[in-house]
Amino acid sequence: VVDMVLLCRERSIRLAAAEQMLLIVTRATAETQHVKVMNTLLFTVINSLVSQHESQSGEYFMLISRLLSFLSSHRIVLNNIQGLLSQQIELLGRVRRDMTSDMPAAAGA
Fold it and tell me: What is the pLDDT of residue 102?
């Protein structure tokens, strides 16, 4: 999952993989445990792999957001959601800082 949604260099493949994973875990079965497991899996690599592949992490965060939205709309509670969201917010802030600090250097090159 992580290889296809985050590590693949082709944006179209990452996007298709994210869409397919969302459909598989939310529609293939009525069991909500699959959505919880997928969210946990995606959050386990947020500080390692996502930090290393910031420029191609948009589809990864889109998938996390849509899975969290699914859980919320179905009133499914993740026990550790506060910690997971704190991690995500911190990483997104770091990515934003890194991207904006790189922009002036790229414009002058």
Answer: 65
